[in-house]
Amino acid sequence: MGIDLDHRFDRKAKRVDPRSDDNYLRLLVQLYKFLSRRTQSKFNRIVLKRMCMARRFRPAMSLKRLIRIMLRTRSKPAGKDAKQPTNALSKGLTAVVVGTISDDIRRYAIPKGLKVCALHVTAPARKRILEAGGEIITFDVLAQRSPKGEKTVLMQGHRNAREAQKHFGPAPGTPGSHTKPYVKSRGRKFERARGRRASRGYKN
Fold first, then answer.
1. 156: how many CB neighbours lie within 10 A of its CB?
2. S-S: 203 plus which of 13, 77, 83, 198, CB 3.0-4.6 Å?
């Protein structure tokens, strides 16, 4: 009598190459495959993984969010004389985004000397960064400057900002659920029946 093998969980859904046909992206993936294999750097492994992700997992990052993270990220002071840690911007660290950097008019002033590395930077964002004396580099240049990710701050956009994400989760109306229902409208006649009133079965 044979062994009853269970093949339900055999498939490993892990991308090792991007779905994109962009030759430049595929060259970067080759480069970071080599770096992640030869340097044993966690930074390179994360960058490689994000390069192979679908675009919905690589949301755009606004200038406002990028600058806020750079100002909040503290780096340890060098030397015995330094009393308190400085932020990543004044330390001269490079912001690394595996995705797009977009402009944000809510951020009026761009700090001087902002260093950015990204797959794509929109034209208005590029103009504002360069006018403020900043620098925009590509990932092949970053690999030469920081093979192990030294002096960098790796960040990403807000993945759950999509409208579709609000509809994922436990069924709307179940206890403890904050999932947004698919309804035509809001009002007296919508989503007011079973589960919403004690007189209609039960109330959460």
1. 18
2. 198
- Give residue for tokens 């034209």: 123
Partners of 152 in the beta sheet? Answer: 94
Query: Identity (one letter) of the amino acid at 88?
Result: A
Around Cβ 185, how many Cβ atoms within 10 Å? 7
- Overall residue count recorded for the chain in this entry: 204
pLDDT in tens, 22-63: 999 999 999 999 999 999 899 999 999 999 999 999 999 999
pTM for the whole thing? Answer: 0.82
Q: Minimal CA–CA distance to 68: which of 157, 159, 160?
A: 157
What's the token pair of residue 86? 């400085």
DSSP 39-80: H--HHHHHHHHHHTS-GGGS--EEHHHHHHHHHH-EEPPPSS
Q: Region 3-23: what's the mean pLDDT?
A: 88
